[in-house]
Amino acid sequence: MSRLPRLLAALTTVAVAAVLAVGAALGVVALLEATPDQPNTPLITYGHAGAER
């Protein structure tokens, strides 16, 4: 009985899991570093001190 196919399957599974874990970690880091677009428009505006009403 050869154990090589089982060992190869186990090593392949570990390698694929490691690649997926690294990819997920890099994806999370990329999402956390992304800055959302924030428009520079004030929600409240006030009139100037000397302006007529």
Can you put this structure into words, describing what you see?
The protein has one helix at about 5-35. It has about 55 residues and is an all-alpha fold. It has 1 helix and no strands. The model has no long low-confidence stretch (mean pLDDT about 85).
**What sort of overall outline do the alpha carbons produce when their principal axes are compared?**
rod-shaped
What is the overall number of helices?
A: 1
Residue share in helices?
A: 55-70%
Strand content: under 5%
Number of strands: 0
Sketch the topology as an H/E string, one letter per element: H
N-end to C-end Cα span: 95 Å
Brief description of this entry?
By secondary structure, the protein is mainly alpha-helical.
Layout of helices and strands:
Elements: H1 4-33
Features of this protein?
single chain, 53 residues, mainly alpha, 57% helix, rod-shaped
